[in-house]
Q: What sequence folds into this?
């Protein structure tokens, strides 16, 4: 224990915690989305699927980057998170009505413009997605500044 | 190593939260379904519904079914076995809920068969040949009619009966009742008015056995 205290300076530990929080966010997002679809039976729309595609691998990328802490995790995780963030923002614009959903024939598939869950009357699923992706991206930049010096 | 156990603890914690939330959500949903079924008890059965088993049986299974539904087909022999295992104690009531594309015509034909007192015979034939007239979850009424020519059903008569508005009315009634009872998937089971909240053979078996125990001491 004392040995590790001498060897690892504090900044590295903070950096580790930052990636750990990123991993927590990605894992919470993954489990949360699975809860909505598998337990509550809400059908994910197409845009939800694209956001899932970029959120789920982050759980693994961050976990691998934690043991041992890899500075390069910034490079691997950032593009994935940014693409996911773009889908989340696009989704937000679609269901807020800023972008019309392409006219499609009616089908049983879930509509991306329909809001089927509102927590406390204001937090929607795409909003949670934007918040998670934004937090991950911001944390990744903080991580890079911490580890650059 | 300390970090490793830290992350392991976080994983365990997150998964437990997930499991507890799932449990709470499901039990809440089951309570709601039971309360709703109790509230709408009166629409669970209609006099016109095809019924199998002793009138005086104290355990009644109501099934909302779709002849094109594979799971309904899989449960049919299970229900027959349960009825054979407890002769005279179980009654089976079938309600139409055509959810598959093309199924609406097929259930109309089944109701026409019911008019000829051949509902169960034709239902069994329908299940047996299901893969011949249902492709990719779409029922093909043409193929269904073709299959019927090999059964004892009087096809010409059935075609005449289909023009009778009573048939369409009964199906409509069943669909409306399913909506009231919150049945959105087939098969939808109720045993003595209690909905099957967690789906599966074992769960249905348990529900039936509980009702048998409560009503035949």
A:
């Amino acid at each position: 224990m004392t040995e590790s205290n001498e060897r690892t300076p504090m900044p590295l530990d903070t950096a580790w915690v930052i990636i750990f929080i990123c991993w927590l966010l990605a894992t919470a997002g993954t489990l949360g989305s699975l809860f909505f679809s598998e337990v509550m039976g809400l059908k994910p729309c197409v845009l939800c699927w694209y956001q899932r595609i970029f959120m789920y691998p982050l759980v693994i990328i961050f976990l691998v980057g934690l043991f041992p802490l890899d500075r390069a995790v910034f490079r691997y995780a950032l593009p994935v998170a940014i693409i996911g963030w773009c889908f989340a923002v696009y989704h937000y614009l679609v269901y807020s009505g800023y972008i019309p959903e392409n006219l499609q024939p009616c089908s049983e598939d879930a509509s991306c413009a329909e809001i089927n869950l509102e927590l406390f009357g204001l937090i929607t699923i795409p909003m949670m997605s934007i918040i998670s992706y934004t937090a991950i991206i911001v944390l990744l930049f903080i991580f890079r500044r911490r580890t650059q010096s | 190593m300390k970090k490793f156990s830290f992350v392991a603890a976080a994983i365990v914690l997150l998964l437990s939260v997930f499991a507890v939330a799932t449990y709470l959500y499901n039990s809440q949903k089951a309570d709601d379904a039971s309360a709703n079924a109790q509230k709408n008890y009166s629409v669970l059965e209609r006099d016109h519904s095809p019924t199998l088993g002793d009138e005086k049986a104290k355990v009644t299974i109501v099934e909302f079914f779709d002849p094109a539904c594979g799971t309904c087909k899989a449960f049919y022999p299970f229900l027959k076995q349960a009825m054979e295992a407890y002769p005279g104690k179980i009654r089976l009531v079938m309600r139409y809920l055509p959810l598959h594309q093309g199924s609406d015509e097929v259930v109309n034909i089944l109701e026409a068969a019911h008019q000829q007192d051949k509902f169960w015979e034709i239902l069994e034939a329908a299940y047996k040949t299901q893969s011949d007239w249902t492709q990719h979850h779409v029922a093909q009424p043409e193929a269904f009619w073709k299959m019927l020519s090999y059964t004892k059903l009087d096809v010409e008569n059935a075609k005449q009966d289909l023009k009778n508005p009573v048939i369409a009315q009964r199906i409509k009634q069943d669909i409306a009742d399913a909506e009231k009872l919150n049945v959105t998937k087939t098969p939808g089971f109720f045993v003595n008015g209690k909905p099957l909240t967690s789906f599966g053979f074992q769960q249905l078996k348990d529900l039936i056995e509980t009702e048998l125990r409560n009503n035949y001491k």
